[in-house]
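Batch queue: ligand-bound targets. Current item pairs a single chain with adenosine-5'-diphosphate. No template structures supplied; prediction is de novo from sequence plus SMILES. Inputs echoed for audit trail.
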Amino acid sequence: MPWVLDGAGARAVDARLEAAGLLDLTMEEAGRAVADAAHAAFPHGAALLLAGGGANGGDAFVAARHLLTLGREVQVLALPSRHPLTRLNRRRWRAVGGVTRALGEAALKRAAPGAGVIVDGLLGTGFRPPLRPALAGVLAALNGTRERGVPVLAVDLPSGLTDSLATVPDGAAGADLTVTFMGLKPALLFGPAAARAGQVQLAPLRVPGDWVAAQALAAQPTDAQVAARLPVRGADAHKGVAGRVWIVGGHPGTVGAAGLAGVGALRAGAGLVTVHSAAEVPLLMPELMVHRHADLRAALLGTPASGRPDAVAVGMGLGPDAAALAREILAWGVPTVLDADALQPELAGCGHDRCVWTPHPGEAGRLLGCAAADVTRDPLAAARALHARLGGAVVLKGGPSVVAHAGGLSVSRGGHPGMASGGMGDTLSGVLAALLGQRLGAADAAVAGVRLHARAGERAAARHGYGLSASDVAQELGGAWRDLGAAGLPPHMHPRGVKFP
Ligand SMILES: NC(=O)C1=CN([C@@H]2O[C@H](COP(=O)(O)OP(=O)(O)OC[C@H]3O[C@@H](n4cnc5c(N)ncnc54)[C@H](O)[C@@H]3O)[C@@H](O)[C@H]2O)[C@@H](O)CC1
Ligand SMILES: Nc1ncnc2c1ncn2[C@@H]1O[C@H](COP(=O)(O)OP(=O)(O)O)[C@@H](O)[C@H]1O
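Prediction returned. Tokens below.
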């Protein structure tokens, strides 16, 4: 399982490695992974390595030695170091004939123009902002060189990023490729910080898996692991057992939201989907049952317990009365997705463990009483706080989304920036309700539904290009399901039925 790990977690693992006498071997492995990645991605020209004073610099010295053995011309510019392993690897570099020159802005500007790749081993997880002036000039020169076309590979983290945050501190470096160790740092996953890191490769290192798992902030499940959570439908299934889903949404001006949620639910396998609205909702698919109610609240609350659905999604374009209606639906105790207008702070404490709450950062800020920027700065912390307040499962939407549930945090894979368009979250709510209606628990539905939706977005992007509509994505849900299924168990190995489709 790929993990998400911050610097504090990595340091805790390092302490165990050090106690076991293994830290030197781990640095060797890390530096070798950097050299292999640099050689594969940027095979031509001289390699210029920049080594800082901490262990990040030690990795750069190891990488220099391996690049030399790969036949590359190698130069090293380094800051002074008191770190024992960094000093050891500087001596090893000298022992194989390597020369180290003092790093400064002028030395970097002299050496950089002819390089085929620059390896940034200046600052990793040990960086504490603000950047000291002496290094600020070096990082500015590094960024200038990169802008002039010399590629940069960052060791663990581009220098000057804060490992756990999505924001970019002043003066931070950028990279074309980042090779990170043991776990993905939050800065490499979210927001403008992730955009600074370029492509990210994870070198898991030969470290006991449970040492890393014990320190991880979050998991990032593989498609095979997601596929194992998807519902299984027996060959004798009929629409009555595939989940009766209600969509409660739509208001004059936002009627499409309810329709799109209905389409999402149908395309994610719900047996019967009914849209209940106070407004005239367009019939986006004739398979949807659409009911317009003069008094929506009275119509829904008059439903006898035996007539209630297997799952509800409430809030999409529902308008000002959404919180009151959602409160009453929550009291039914049926699996419920809460989205958009139903994401109101007064509903904290009204949920149950079969609820999935799906805020985007703006809605998350409203629920937490903070600004959206506080949410996007540290999405893992925000998702944890939302779960503490709301319970059930929480999907903090974004690229990528974070799912928080009683078992911990999970960061989704994939998706596409073209998905940043209106209605995309409405479709997701329908997908989640369909999965709840097919008897998945809230955590499984959230993890599987988010990945299914993201995979559908990837497929839609491949078909349509950049600007995607929620309808394009909904159409790809069947194919996304097939892709995830292909990553999981083959159907004949599944004991209870056939994976569908
Ligand atoms: N378990 C792991 O993840 C492993 C991590 N390793 C490396 O170890 C690194 C962490 O090493 P360290 O904890 O020694 O830290 P770093 O090497 O990332 O940073 C410490 C250095 O940065 C300087 N520094 C800190 N804040 C600064 C500021 N504001 N302005 C200027 N300079 C500043 C310090 O003076 C010190 O020289 C990781 O990023 C990774 O590259 C590897 O050695 C292999 C194992
Ligand atoms: N850059 C992106 N990368 C991946 N997924 C994205 C990106 N931008 C948006 N999405 C996805 O699109 C959806 C947007 O939801 P939301 O903002 O609620 O839309 P709406 O309210 O218009 O329906 C979320 O599922 C989110 O994860």
